[in-house]
Write a structure and sequence with these properties.
The chain is of the alpha/beta class. The protein has twelve helices and seven strands. It folds into three domains: 104 residues, 2-Layer Sandwich (Nucleotidyltransferase, domain 5), CATH 3.30.420.40; 63 residues; 96 residues, no CATH class. A five-stranded mixed β-sheet has the order 3-2-1-4-5. A hairpin with a 2-residue loop joins β6 and β7. α9 crosses α12. It is globular and about 60 Å long.
Length: 311
């Protein structure tokens, strides 16, 4: 077969493989030795695509090791589940999921993703580590509220200071890496020109959504998970909602949207218009988040900074 498709179900410890051409299944360790074995397995046939679901940290090693050597296709887990439901699949095992992903890749003739640059892998690892530190910090501060013993409070304060120092070091390394790339540094400058968008939000967009600047408005909203999903059947119309997409980017846009709503005249006017139209504040803020990411995409595409209207 000259257009073979391979599906991979990725877990913390293993990579379960299904080759569509002959139904061959294999299981490799999710580690460097396993990546080499997978590469040799794929070399036995002409592979058009290797399909897997986005699984957070579990797929990062595969992408870093084989992104430049195999035609990798990362699919949204929600889309994969919908495909499985459409196929009438009820069982959910690693082997079943691997075959389902191979079938999905073949059915839609999914195109391989553009291999990420090494710096992009490094930045993702740093961002993920920073996210863990932020959770640690939140947990420490929460526990301190109920601590009464001097020893527990003293150690919590020491741990908090340590975490704050580590966060600052990670922030500095992210900034250094971004500044080491002319393209990323230029895009960062454009994003920071938008009122309300700080260094962390801008870096998150560049790290987690490197496609920014290459899409249209609908595509960028959909990829971020900020495109409203409409529910309608006949004369019945349900409430619209947002779903899927890159939650990390959505989370990073929330505070900037609040800042923009208060201090950016354009965003403030849009927010007030939505509230006047009867939209709940949460829906109005979500609309501002969508406006922010659409603006970020448009500015990077046009290679220009934000300019306040009338300036």
């Amino acid at each position: 077969m000259t257009d073979d498709t391979i599906g991979i179900d990725i877990s913390k410890a293993t990579l379960d493989i299904h080759r569509l051409s002959d139904g061959k299944t294999m299981s490799f360790s999710n580690c460097p030795a396993g990546f080499k074995a997978l590469s040799r397995f794929c070399a036995k046939t002409a592979v058009a695509r290797v399909v897997y679901e986005a699984t957070g940290a579990y797929h990062s090693g595969l992408e870093r090791a084989l992104g430049a050597h195999l035609p990798l296709v990362k699919v949204n887990p929600l889309q994969a589940r919908r495909f499985a439901q459409a196929q009438g699949l009820r069982a959910k095992t690693d082997a079943v999921d691997a075959k389902m992903l191979a079938d999905m890749g073949n059915a839609f003739a999914l195109e391989p993703d553009e291999p990420a640059a090494e710096i992009q892998h490094d930045l993702k690892e740093l961002r993920s580590f920073r996210s863990g530190l932020i959770k640690d910090r939140t947990g420490i501060m929460s526990r301190m509220k109920t601590q009464t013993l001097s020893i527990t409070r003293r150690q919590s304060k020491a741990r908090l200071a340590q975490v704050d120092k580590q966060i600052a070091e990670i922030n500095a390394e992210i900034e250094r890496l971004i500044n080491s790339s002319d393209k990323l540094a230029h895009s960062m400058k454009i994003l920071r020109s938008i009122p309300g968008v700080g260094a962390i939000c801008a870096a998150t967009i560049l790290i987690e959504m490197p496609e920014t600047g290459s899409m249209d408005r609908k595509q960028v909203a959909s990829l971020t998970g900020l495109a409203p999903m409409t529910r309608q059947s006949g004369q019945w119309r349900g409430k619209s909602f947002i779903q899927g997409g890159r939650k990390i980017v959505r989370d990073a846009l929330y505070m900037p949207a609040l800042v923009a709503m208060r201090h950016n005249p354009d965003f403030k006017a849009k927010y007030q218009a939505l509230i006047k139209a009867g939209k709940p504040p949460k829906v109005a803020i979500t609309a501002l988040m969508r406006k922010l990411i659409e603006l970020a995409n448009a500015l990077i595409k046009a290679d220009r900074n934000w300019v306040t209207k009338g300036a």
